[in-house]
Amino acid sequence: MILAIDMGNSNIVIGGIDNTGIYFVERVTTNHGKTELEYAVNIKDIMEIHGLPLSSIEGAILSSVVPPLTDVVLSAVKKITGKTPMLVGSGMKTGLNIKMDNPKTVGSDLIVNAIAALKEYPAPIIVIDMGTATTMSVIDHEGNYTGGIIFPGLRVSLDSLSSRAAQLPYIGLNKPTRVIGKNTIDCMKNGILFGNAAMIDGLIDRMEAELGASACLVATGGLASSVVPLCYHKIYYDDALLLKGLLILYEKNKQD
């Protein structure tokens, strides 16, 4: 089993995975104030909760979009496993052809998602990752990463709305039963959830028009399960997509 870690701006996803399956997936809050020891304790506690010894970890790999915390988490993993994790970044063998103005600027999480999607689903593919930001990545029929789009995530939009309007409360994102809200909270929730669903549906239509073909649609990320059921398009929900991509990269780059 390898320890696969995806560090995002809001959460750090920590998973145990190998070629036979996924042993666990947990999320902890991304906290710039934590030390390497505190992150080490988090990982150790997660392993213990799932009844897995640290000795079962044969290696580790980290994808990070939070540079100030990258070395902290790398050190935390080494502290409890004795192994230095791989870091997704420039110089790593990916097998992915990135057709962008500057391929080095593409987020590591987007690359990892694309690699996993290409193995699991037929191209062309649109990968929708819903986290702090919502990203939509496009893979053409030849398997090239051709670009995408980024817009504010659900929680960012909702927090911004609540914080800038004195009479609008902070609310949850449980599934709405109808589009037209009957009170302030439902109006806000429906606006965020159905608004994002409609935005995604509309962007899919425009992206497919540019591709000249229908695409396989795959969604992942902590907030995707709240929006995917509200979309008109058939979208596969794969919460473990990024972990699968990290395993592929680990296998491709490990020393024999």
UniProtKB/TrEMBL annotation:
Residues bound to substrate: 107-110, 184
Record EC number: 2.7.1.33
Catalytic residues identified in the record: 109 (proton acceptor)
InterPro entries (UniProt xref): ATPase_NBD, Type_III_PanK
BP GO terms, sorted: coenzyme A biosynthetic process
A single Gene Ontology CC term: cytoplasm
Gene3D superfamilies assigned: 3.30.420.40
Reaction catalysis annotation: (R)-pantothenate + ATP = (R)-4'-phosphopantothenate + ADP + H(+)
Free-text remark on how the cofactor is bound: A monovalent cation. Ammonium or potassium.
One GO MF term: pantothenate kinase activity
UniProt-annotated location(s): Cytoplasm
Pfam (any one): Pan_kinase
Pathway the protein acts in: Cofactor biosynthesis; coenzyme A biosynthesis; CoA from (R)-pantothenate: step 1/5
Residues that hold K(+) according to the record: 129
Domain of life: Bacteria
Cofactor entry: NH4(+); K(+)
Binding-site residues for ATP, renumbered to this chain: 6-13, 132
Top-level EC class: transferase
Alphabetical UniProt keywords: ATP-binding, Coenzyme A biosynthesis, Cytoplasm, Kinase, Metal-binding, Nucleotide-binding, Potassium, Transferase
Protein family (similarity comment): Belongs to the type III pantothenate kinase family.
Oligomer status and interactors: Homodimer.
Role summary: Catalyzes the phosphorylation of pantothenate (Pan), the first step in CoA biosynthesis.
Protein name: Type III pantothenate kinase
